[in-house]
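Task card 7
Instruction: Convert sequence to structure tokens.
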Amino acid sequence: MSSSNFVVNYTIPNQTLSHEEYSERAISPRLRGSAVSVQSLVAPSSRRTKGPILDEPGFHVLREHLIDYPTGENLNDLWGFGSMAGICLGVQILTGIFLRMHYPASTRLAFEAVEQHMMRDVNFGWLLRYFHANGASFFFIVVYRHIFRGFYYSSYTAPRELVWLSGIRILLVMIITAFLGYVLPWGQMSFWGATVITSLASAIPRAGPSIVEWLWGGFSVDNATLNRFFRLHFVLPFVIAGLAGVHLAALHQYGSTNPIGSVVESRKVTLYPYYFRKDLVAWLIFRIAFSFFVFFEPNAMGHPDNSIPANPLSTPAHIQPEWYFLPVYAILRSIPDKLGGVLRIGRVFARMRYLPFGQTGTFRHGNFRMFHKRLFRRFAGICFFLGWIGAKPVESPYLEFGQVAGRLFFLYFYLQVVMAQLERGFPRYLLSKKLVFPRTCWEHHLSV
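Output:
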């Protein structure tokens, strides 16, 4: 039978169409509201072969969580720093893999390999190094901005405790990874920074000296220390990526917060294309700022002493870590006792982890809490002040300023708990005075 004699008829309620008539009607804009669906009349095998790859098994997770995920329509630009942090993590992992191919974990060769071989002999090695070094600083800028947004809008409150706790774990692993990477160039500040920070473990009673020797792999910071620091620095970014997956899964369990703390399900929009285009603007601005530092001021965020080879016989006049460690470093050195300083550092992260469980007030959102904005502004100012103190020598009056600022830093977390208790009793106080307020609104909060 020839193909010219083969006729296909499509049966539609109350009428029968030939192949040519059906094609004309199927593509006609006037029939968009009709019940006739072109896709429903196509064989399943052809739909699978011609469909997008994101519909295939395994890829639908990407579609559900990165493309079609429903999100509140009122998110502002501050909610874009999470995706920007993911981009920074990808840049760090990618550049780190290529730098690892040219880095020898040896105290005799490390400094020359970083400062000379990578910069002069490797094609675009200077670009990889400056991308990686400045990428670490920008990574912390984005993450700190992301955390401060959580502080301001109280994003740590129920039911998003796991989101906050996983984020704190990511921050801890980031700090450890950045410290290990700071040692790898084996400059003067790298060597002495590793010596000072690892010596803090000696403050642990009885087991402290043995722990320090175990960290060093000997009786001082030497080749064994550099080897294990290098391997840990290469592995931990993948741990961060895994924790980021947990963080994202916990976030999508209950959805993101928003500037007003309320989401109407019927007013949600998809991530793509709405927030993808909005975040794209922030990514372009980030790229401009990042490129400026990479190509014009590549060493602006580093310490000049780290361009000097490590010398165990010459101690720098002022040992200080990278800028993103300075607030914590200022709190650490403000305590004369070494064990007290280590305990205070642990207290910083313990207070941050306790925030979701201490916030039990009636108002869960930062915009509607009493004095919350004023407290947050002072807290942010204290953090910047501690960073400035950490870059100063350990002498008067900077030592005293650091002690006062450290107390004010912890006072913020205590006041958060106190304000939550006051907010808990505030609606009952208003109702007891028989003031005129919408009672149904307060009854909902009193039942929480």
